[in-house]
Amino acid sequence: MRRRPLVLAPAAATLALACGSVRAAPRPGPDLVVGQVAALSGPSAPRQLAFNAGARLVIDDFNARGGAQGRPLRWISLDHLGRADLAQAAGEQLLIEQRASLLFGCSGSTATLTLLPLQREKGVAALAGREVDDAVRLETTRWSYFVTAGQTHQAQALAQHLAELGLRRVAVVHEAGAPRPAGRVLGGGAWLRLLHDACVSRQLDWLGSAAVTADPGTAREAMHKLTALSPQALLLALPGRQVLALLAELNRLAKAPPCYALPEAEEDGSLLQAAAQTRLLTLAQVLPSPWSTTQAALIEFRRQASAAGVGLSYPTLEGWMAGQLLVQALQRCGRDTSAARLHAVLDSLQVHLGGMTVDFSRRELSGSRLVEWVHPSLDGRWLS
Predict the structure, then answer these.
(1) I need a surface site. Which of 97, 188, 318, 341 has the fewest CB within 10 A?
(2) How do beta strands 144-145 and 126-127 pair?
(3) Helix locations, the chain, DSSP H
(4) 215 in helix, strand or coil?
(5) Is residue 21 in a domain?
(6) Do the beta carbons of residue 29 and residue 71 sit within 8 Å?
(7) For 239-250, b where at least 16 C-beta lie within 10 A, e where not — what string?
(8) For residue 211, what are the domain limits?
(9) Does residue 126 sit in helix, strand or coil?
(10) How far apart, in whole angstroms, are the C-alpha atoms of residue 164 and residue 180?
(11) Of 285, 318, 352, which closes a domain?
(12) What phi-psi label fits residue 188: left (phi over 0), alpha (psi between -120 and 50 degrees) or beta?
């Protein structure tokens, strides 16, 4: 028979506590605040919201199990709308008014640079920043702990991969114009320079490049220009919607070269569907596969995602794995979850999770060096 909970009247409760016969349940401590300043709207929002959904799975589970020594973890997310002034205001709200102990899952190069002076002043580190170019990673390295492999490592890995396949004649399509205020890693020709240097270092034949904008006509012009050079591989340093436009143009050609895109190209499921139909696209990824059936951690990720109705994707897995790193750091802090203690713990954090090693003690631009190549399947998955 199920017992009914004991309920004491106020006077009886006071007497019982005084006599020591009933022990009061400990009250939860004040919330442990973690802050986020990110692109929650605009072109980068789909990837960011997917990241947040994955991280939320871990945070909700952590709080359900008691949080940080009885303190609930409260994650406050603020939208910078691609503006430095709003990133500054959001940072002040989080680090001064809310006294956040850590920044988590922030996005954008401009926002990252904007927050840096405030982080230094308040002694608050940032974990799992996203869509931040390597120059900014280098400038913020003492205060930021980036999880996934950065631009330089990705470019070098791609050039090595092409050399191993014997695809020596390469051309690049990149995004035109200056970087967006939110600091997308694909803007301003940063990828063009890195890919060029990586290909030259591997003695690949650099045939040239073409820039595209949101205007679909520029995709058509780029394809005519570059396919006339007979490349063996096209490198697409572009966001997902522009990759889709290029794939549509390539479908019209009798013979099209294979294409290689970067992780940021997967903004939502539309790229996977289009790539499965064309069979032309290989995608670089800096995370293990969300569909892995051999890694216990990834099986648990899929279980939690399914139970919460969260779709499987690389950005969602990125958020989930970042959340796991956050929880492990908090657990290693013990009772002292101050900003200074969190910073010290992150400095030496080494975790093997889901087939990926994250090691911040190496003092590199990212904790992980993982880069792998995936292809679309007809059943809606990216396969290595």
Answers:
(1) 97
(2) parallel
(3) 10-19, 45-64, 84-92, 109-122, 134-139, 151-165, 190-201, 216-227, 240-250, 269-278, 296-308, 314-333, 339-347
(4) coil
(5) no
(6) yes
(7) bbebbbbbbebb
(8) 151-285
(9) strand
(10) 34
(11) 285
(12) left
Query: How many residues belong to the chain?
Result: 384
Give, for all 384 residues of the chain, the pLDDT tens digit. Answer: 433 333 323 333 322 323 333 333 344 558 899 999 999 998 889 999 999 999 999 999 999 999 998 999 999 999 999 999 999 999 999 999 999 999 999 999 999 999 999 999 999 999 999 999 998 999 999 999 999 999 999 999 999 999 999 999 999 998 886 444 334 444 446 888 899 999 999 999 999 999 988 887 888 899 889 999 999 999 999 888 888 888 888 888 878 899 999 998 887 677 888 888 778 899 999 999 999 999 999 999 999 999 999 999 999 999 999 999 999 999 999 999 999 999 999 999 999 999 999 999 999 999 999 999 999 888 888 888
Contacts 24+ apart (CB under 8 A), 295-301: 295/354, 295/355, 297/324, 297/353, 297/354, 298/354, 298/355, 301/54, 301/57, 301/354
Domain with residue 307: its CATH number is 3.40.50.2300
Burial of 384 (0-12, 13-18, 19+ CB in 10 A): exposed
Residue owning tokens 């713990």: 345
Domain count, the chain: 2
Whether residue 195 contacts residue 155, with contact meaning beta carbons closer than 8 Å, is answered with: yes
Query: What's the pTM value of the predicted model, to 2 decimals?
Result: 0.87
Claim to verify: residue 244 and residue 264 sit in the same structural domain: yes
Distance in angstroms (rounded) separating the CA atoms of residues 3 and 12: 20
Give 5: exposed, middle or buried? Use CB within 10 Å, 0-12, 13-18, 19+: exposed
Please identify, among 243, 263, 285, the residue that sits at the C-terminal boundary of a domain: 285
